[in-house]
Amino acid sequence: MTEQVQKLSTKHLLGIKDLNRNDIELIFETADNFKNVLNRPIKKVPSLRDITIANIFFENSTRTKLSFELAEKRLSADIINFAASSSSVSKGETLIDTVNNILAMKVDMVVMRHPYAGAGVFLSKHINAQIVNAGDGAHEHPTQALLDAFSIRERFGDVAGKKVVIVGDVLHSRVALSNILCLQKLGAEVMVCGPTTLIPKYIFTLGVKVEHNLIKALNWCDVANMLRIQLERQDIKFFPSLREYSLMYGLNKKILDSLDKEIIIMHPGPINRGVEITSDVADSKQSIILDQVENGVAIRMAVLYLLANQRS
After folding, report:
1. What are the boundaries of each domain within the chain?
2. What is the pLDDT along the chain (312 residues), one digit of tens a residue?
3. pTM for the complete prediction?
4. 65 φ, ψ (degrees, to nearest 5)
5. Shortest CA distance to 142 belongs to which of 29, 22, 14, 35?
6. pLDDT at residue 212, as a whole number
7. SS3 sequence of the chain
8. How many Å apart are CA 179 and CA 186, to the nearest integer?
9. Domain 16-141+293-309 has CATH 3.40.50.1370
10. How far apart are CA 274 and CA 228, in angstroms?
11. How far apart are CA 68 and CA 256, in angstroms?
12. Cis preceding-peptide flag for 270 (omega within 30 of 0)
């Protein structure tokens, strides 16, 4: 194998679709190194001490925002935190005006979550700073997909050849699309499973399998990534009730123990315990949910570090 260029092929991280396989593997190798740093007594490196990063969140977020913030602090970056709910956005200020005002403070990089798909792409064309997409509507969430694939690689040694089923609200999920693109680029087979109303019609164009029977999907896979029902993005009812959804597509310990083989359970969070997954599954030895959280910091450190290298 030829030696990899130690730089990403893209200036921004707007979506998995903009990364090639070498980019993803470089991010993983860099995250391996940062994970070693995170396990040291002194968990900080001076890699980004001259970089200022603005975290701009136009939607509520706990895990992603905290994960990025911790990653930035571990890299010694200067941080500005911005929440749209308590800003001039609520007074009618435009996205570009908001960000330009922040950039006037000499910000180098923007980590942004926005309710509209393509907001990061739009911004990258209008401002002179690097953009990291922390989730745009129901479109993409690239760092989540990277940490998910990294967690699978950590458990199995490789992602290639693994069978991964994504179960639940695929239609409204930004995690699902990014995961499908990332896993396929790394050589995994992907299936989606859920009620017909929650599987987007375009899914067949992505080359994934579709299964509506949870037990069949679980018997097929090596890894099950359980998505939560995103009620906040649903303007109509896509199924009769949460109870009925849980009966059809909820994963419990009885189902897990009845399978022909032992599979790995993942969840991007936050978990709706008792709906898509029960507590005894979420907390079982087959679950790598807490590993995902830990790996999220290392992956985001790697992304920020590699993007900062593009500046030189």
Report:
1. 16-141+293-309, 142-292
2. 334 448 999 999 999 999 999 999 999 999 999 999 999 999 999 999 999 999 999 888 888 999 999 999 999 999 999 877 655 555 567 888 878 888 888 899 999 999 899 999 998 988 889 999 999 988 999 999 999 999 999 999 999 999 999 999 999 889 999 999 999 999 999 999 999 989 999 999 999 999 999 999 999 999 999 998 864 444 445 555 778 888 899 999 999 999 999 999 999 988 989 889 999 999 999 999 999 999 999 999 999 999 999 875
3. 0.93
4. -65, -45
5. 14
6. 96
7. CCCCCCCCCCCCECCHHHCCHHHHHHHHHHHHHHHHHHCCCCCCCCCCCCCEEEEEECCCCCHHHHHHHHHHHHCCCEEEEEEHHHCHHHHCCCHHHHHHHHHCCCCCEEEEEECCCCHHHHHHCCCCCEEEEEEECCCECHHHHHHHHHHHHHHHCCCCCCEEEEECCCCCCHHHHHHHHHHHHCCCEEEEECCHHHCCHHHHHHCCEEECCHHHHHHHCCEEEECCCCHHHCCCCCCCCHHHHHHHHCECHHHHHHCCCCCEEECCCCCCECCCECHHHHCCCCECHHHHHHHHHHHHHHHHHHHHHCCC
8. 11
9. yes
10. 11
11. 33
12. yes
Among residues 247, 190, 243, 180, the alpha carbon closest in space to that of 215 is found at: 247
Using the structure block, give the residue that is written with the tokens 């590993």.
Answer: 291
State how far the Cα of 229 lies from the Cα of 224, in Å rounded to an integer: 16
* Total residues belonging to the chain: 312
Residue 232: predicted pLDDT: 44
The rounded distance, in Å, linking the Cα atoms of 200 and 53 is 35
What is the CATH number that goes with domain 142-292?
A: 3.40.50.1370
